[in-house]
Write a structure and sequence with these properties.
Chain lengths: 405, 405
């Protein structure tokens, strides 16, 4: 008997009809001879509603209480999911994060899973029942309720799949899989049948919103095959699996883009060793999430440092960088929110030199200026003007042969 | 330092403004040098909304999952209450029923408290913090989440007050206390300053809706003084305490009424010993909650048995009573939903004979016919036509000198 973990996101359990449709699909999976563990998110906009309530009530929101509040959402969806499964003839039983044995550290609102004690779930499976587990939550070593932060329900599902030795972890969402580019930008984008964990990581890191980075890392580290698919069409989606050394990799798998960052430039920095390190340490101490960093060639004994951060972090970043600039005698610090990133991702890049060159030529031919460049072994990212990024994605999608037959 | 348990019902925490008002009151109570444990119900109509969601999703509602669903409501209110308390400068910490150590049996949707392990609450109090506990819920000996049924949050508050040795348990609600009659029926009804547990029990059992019977029983058995008061006016309300042998009791404390029951009559029952016992055993087996029972004088070798049940139990009762009637050769079974109960309650009745006689005379003088009578040591109840019950309450309130100076 094959064990699968099925995770259903907020839109998949958005209302009573959707919940019944999910219950029917779980029942079908069971009748096909599989064991199933279901992981659910909060219904639709429940979490947003709870956050709004907290904002209405109070300016002071202790993280422990925020976690207690938000975990109510998954509790509701898992209980009604069990009821719908009972209607569908399935003996289901709900488990909170705590009951499912998901033990975390004490970092409220962004806890890390330390251990999964799967004995209650295993017992339920042995009794022929379907465990329905609340995503996004656990219990800390101090016996308090915790949440796992953004993408937490995906992480719950992957952690359970790893702990229970599941064959696969199916992530049900409102899109039919991972695409070669955002279909809203590139109508001819293709659904990818199969990706390596590394490719998925770079896609997630460079703007692909389907899976949270953290759950993909967890899946890679624990060798859990992921299947990203739609709970609206139920058709097969995209598999994210270990890279097979024998398989011929596409040079470029996907073109991604991200408009959620801004560029900051500290200009006229004296060219002394260690100054850049001090700047980025100061930003890290403020929990600013720095992404790309480029240090321009030094001229006249000074240098310019540019980097990107999430637009939400711009005020903190400006304050920190200006204090640093004044201290070391830099010329000025400017923020530019009008940028976007465009990236190529593909495991085949490792063995195919020249991808970057083709990328730059394609952008140049389209009249698009490149402001920053960064590369990894399987990704090339360029920063361009935000108003040019959709043209950039379309041109690159065509140039690298992703438009399909 | 005095320890008080304060319980806030659904209307008391109905919206963000109400929650902030409660937080201010708790802060005031702390600044007056008291230790406080707060127990909260779900906000306003949250529980009704969750039940409606369950009905939308499913016809099959396993009691374990219904409990899991409904406990989300208190979880939300306790978390936001802690946030509001933080705003008010109070270091508060929330506890689910399970975290508060409320251990119950496994009877989902109507669990009974077996034990209260108060160590986490005591520790929080010792650290100078205000524990905020979810009412209505516990954890079963099988480690499942349970709910305590109707009036469950009051029971939580009383159980915690007993376990922690609190000075008093304050029950905050949307009325200012317990009255000598329903003020909507008798505008001149007086707020009672002080009642014995026995009186409160008979008031609750005969139609007074302010406190659930079960929490009063618990308070009496554990000697926990109750203070029923309003979270809208914050004025002192009604104390429910042990009866003091030295105190002169009012003959009649309150006139209550109840329109939620129906009368059933099984007529032409052969006058053999044991037949009535068989009928009421059969009804008990169907969980029908029989209240008053009157067996009329036997005539021509047959007898009539009348009894009252909640109107919601009428269909089950009719079916069971008709099967019984057919089996023993009774003449007929009829249900009458047009009745109401009116009761006098007062600890002084024990030493004052003649209360019943005065009651019957008063009703007769008002032209109101009595259909059934039942008495206990401190209560007399008459069944009358439903359309006459308000007149009955008013006439009795005046006749027994409760209208005030």
């Amino acid at each position: 008997m094959t064990l699968v973990v099925q995770k259903y996101g907020g839109t998949s359990v958005g209302d009573a009809d959707r919940i019944r449709a999910v219950a029917d699909h779980v029942a079908r999976t069971c009748r096909q001879g599989n064991q199933v563990v279901v992981v659910v998110s909060a219904m639709g906009k429940t979490t947003d509603d709870l956050i709004r309530l907290a904002d209405d009530v109070s300016r002071t929101q202790p993280p422990r209480e925020l976690d207690m509040l938000l975990t109510a959402g998954e509790r509701i969806s898992m209980a009604v999911m069990c009821m719908a499964l009972a209607d569908a003839g399935i003996d289901a039983v709900s488990f909170t994060g705590s009951q499912a044995g998901i033990i975390t550290d004490t970092a409220h609102t962004r806890a890390k899973i330390l251990e999964v004690r799967g004995d209650r779930l295993r017992q339920a499976l042995d009794e022929g029942r379907v465990p329905v587990v609340a995503g996004f939550q656990g219990v800390s070593t101090a016996r308090d309720v915790t949440t796992l932060g953004r993408g937490g329900s995906d992480t719950t599902a992957v952690a359970l799949a790893a702990a229970l030795g599941a064959e696969a972890c199916e992530i049900y969402t409102d899109v039919t899989g991972v695409f070669s580019a955002d279909p809203r930008v590139v109508p001819q984008a293709q659904r990818l049948r199969r990706l390596s964990f590394d490719e998925m990581l770079d896609i997630a890191a460079s703007g692909g919103r389907v899976l949270a980075l953290r759950s993909v890392e967890f899946a890679r580290n624990h060798h859990v095959p992921l299947h990203v698919r739609s709970s609206f069409t139920w058709e097969p989606g995209t598999w994210v699996v270990e890279e097979e050394p024998t398989m011929e990799n596409a040079v470029v798998t996907a073109v991604t883009h991200d408009t959620s960052e801004a560029k900051l430039t500290v200009s006229g920095v004296p060219d002394h060793p260690g100054l850049a390190a001090r700047l980025f340490r100061a930003l890290a101490d403020q929990s600013v999430n720095v992404d790309m960093i480029v240090q321009n060639v030094s001229q006249h004994g000074t240098t310019d440092i540019s980097f990107t951060v999430p637009t939400t972090d711009v005020p903190t970043t400006l304050q920190t960088a200006r204090a640093f600039g004044a201290e070391i005698g830099a010329k000025e610090v400017v923020a530019d929110a009008g940028i976007a990133k465009v990236s190529l991702v593909g495991a085949g890049m490792r063995s195919h030199p020249g991808v970057s060159a083709t990328m730059f030529e394609t952008l140049a031919a389209a009249g698009i200026n490149i402001e920053m460049i960064s590369t990894s072994t399987i990704r090339v990212t360029c920063v361009v003007r935000a108003d040019a990024v959709e043209r950039a994605v379309q041109a690159l999608h065509t140039a690298f042969g992703l438009d399909g037959a």
